[in-house]
Fold this protein.
Amino acid sequence: MSLMTVTRTQQTTATGGTAAAATATGNGAAGVGPEAGAATLTMAKAINLGLRAALAADPRVLLMGEDIGTLGGVFRVTDGLQQEFGADRVVDTPLAESGIVGTAIGLAMRGYRPVCEIQFDGFVFPAFDQITTQLAKMHHRTRGAISLPVVIRIPYGGGIGAVEHHSESPEVLFAHTAGLRIVTPASPADAFTMIQEAIASPDPVIFFEPKSRYWEKGEVDLGRPYATPTGALDRARVVRRGTDATIVAYGPTVHTALRAADAAAEEGRSLEVVDLRAISPLDTDTVADSVRRTGRCVVVHEAPVAFGTGGEIAARITEACFYHLQAPVLRVGGYATPYPVARLEHEYLPSVDRVLDAVDRAVGF
Amino acid sequence: MTEPDIGPELVQLLTPDGRRVAHPRYDERVAHLDAAALRAMHRDMVLARRFDTEATALQRQGELALFAPALGQEGAQIGSARALAPQDMVFPSYREHGVLQVRGVDPVDVLSLFRGIDYGGWDPTATGVHLYTLVIGSQTLHATGYAMGVARDGLVGTGDPERDTAVIVYFGDGATSQGDTNESLVFAAVNQAPVVFFCQNNQWAISEPTARQSRVPLADRGKGFGIPTVRVDGNDVLACYAVAAEALERARTGGGPTFVEAVTYRMGAHTTSDDPSRYRTAEEEESWRRRDPIDRLRAHLTAAGELSDDDLAALEAEGDALGERLRREVRAMTAPAPESMFEHVYATAHAGVARERREYLAEAAARTAAAPVAGPSQGSTR
């Protein structure tokens, strides 16, 4: 329970309509190309332009998925790309997720760089076998003879009032498998560069896209050359400086953490916010550097807390800076329940209030 | 004596007693094979069987952790593999030792996997043979994707036999029940991918007979996907060659995929850990022994006066040499350096793997430093 008496803002995670798939295009700045310099874009458009840059720069890049071509994807992330690059480069596949990933593996063996879209988080499991037993292990089992530069894009997370299997956060199920890189952008700027770096990476990358953030706008530098290394696939970033506690977040919860930091500032408390960006590899150095300064750490993710990223960070931080900790590492996230029905998801998802309550517990420990 | 239940009609060019029978469709596919070519197929099958015998013995001696014999399936494997062109790509399951032999994979490199040294000792790119896949049916999708890539590369239907490329994927009767296999048939069909689905129906998926996989002949599986299908006597090396040659040519010339059911029999155990007597009768095994793929080609060649005692003696000597080399080189294979488990996990640097490698090496060095100077009898540390 909160030790503070200030009334807190109501959680407002949901960003709009109840049917994500019905969201119209209108994601702004159509026709803005990589040559156009800085622009204000939605994350969906930023990913779209990142994919476009990849298709333009590398003839071996292919997009594969269900409804990504003619329709432009149910979230319109691939809108216009088939028209521009053709049905051979932006491929509407049969409705078979294992088939998409399994044939992408074969195409990658042949030298292509497939970018697969899994339509929703809860639909990735038919492909789980191909991802974990084949895609993740091929480079190792061939002693480096074969690399599989396959990207699997997965819109993930809740907060959009969706039906069952459309709001899940399965990132740690993949992070537990060696051989996969697991990344997730939290801003349009990172989304634009990280998708390009993921496609250019010789390793398989699971690219989790926070679907509740698809329509949030931000500044994007479109001017840099294709796949310019930024380090985002390997390194976390401090997105807000603070002194009293470190909030570690990624994907959709970075926004929540920043709002919590705003609210805390009004109460005279200074929170530092770290955006992990990558779950594998986990940049515990950046987190530990922050925690050494603040002495407290709260990890926030939509995925269930049990056996999650927060638990891993808690263990790593305990090992790395035990004597700097003034409180146990705390976790805020989903509960050990199936993802709840849409009318209850606001109680399940990490909210500003839940984050601030955790900060209170850490400060009052 | 009972005859094995081989189901509906199947392509056959050699009867079980070695008589050549005419086939209106497939005769032309083998017309160019002279006696020397048939002797070479016979040699391949004999050496493949010798490999099996030697590997099984090495497992019994504790030199291999496990072995999966291909005993009885030499006709299907040698016949289909001999129809491949150098540029074709093979995606095997885990029992295609005869195919690998024809493709020039060093048999010692096949056994490193079963000794627990690596996950397949051969280079897939250099040999045109992908590594063995142990998850049943997974490789059908890899083969289909690879074939889609071949078509994208413009290496189908060029008219140049040295450029046109096909892919062949091997799998068993059990694999036809897997979702991945069925999805691969969907992807191959709608993309008209240059891939041959070569199903060796060896009658048993460990303990489950093919009747537990399908109500219809497995060859019929292809039809529902719009894929041409053919059912061939898998113990007839000549018929397997002919059927594979036709299917590979269809793939190379842009005719799309083919589903082949090669009806054969796993005469040995599923693996050296299996006991077939728990699920099948000696009478059944005997009935298939009379359809042995090597015996029938040998009978054919002998009757034609094309296989002399000298030929057989030379082959025996070649088999002995293979056995001697396998025994020597397998026993000489040592475990890789422990830290190699941290290698090639990623193609690029990964902080998590790098950290754990450092920690492992430090701990291992500390254990070594703390170890008693005396010999192995002290061995609480390794």
Q: What stands out?
A: Chain A touches chain B at residues 88, 93-94, 96, 98-99, 101-112, 126, 129-130, 133-134, 139-147, 178-179, 181, 201-203, 234, 280-283, 285 (CB under 8 Å).
